[in-house]
Amino acid sequence: MNAVVDTDPVACGCDSHAHKLTPLDVAIERGLALASAVDDVEDVALTDAIGRVLAFDATSPIPLPPFDNSAMDGYLVQTADLAGDGPWTLKVIGRIAAGDTGQDKPQSGTALRILTGAPVPAGFDAVVMQEDCEVLGDTITFSRKPAVGQHIRPSGG
Fold this sequence. Notes:
Elements: H1 9-12, H2 24-34, E1 69-70, E2 74-77, E3 88-96, E4 110-114, E5 126-129, E6 134-136, E7 139-142, E8 152-153
Parallel strand pairs: 3-4
Antiparallel strand pairs: 1-8, 2-4, 2-5, 3-7, 6-7
């Protein structure tokens, strides 16, 4: 194929200031005039649903995820242990990976290494991203105080 494409902005009128911009309210009005409500609902097999849009919200009969889990690789902490403005240094007393039971009990002034998807044991309330930590032996030091719930995906219950 030997097509010739003219990329000169003058040829397409792209350099002209003669065109007025369409005001937002007018653009919205025009778009809404072209839209119409969809009243037809059709039941199809899941394998035939590719490229379609749900007519109703999909909900699960069970909580998903079934437990609080980490959204990041990092360190589980108890924000109540983080007094003052930091930096904070905590001893790392264990590790939880995805698939583990996550039954570790929190101890004041400590942290747990946690991997993405791993269950968050009761008592811990934030994950500090590993990128925000300096690791030295069995301790971590970090300067940004995490918010309660930071990087924790709550159970869908």
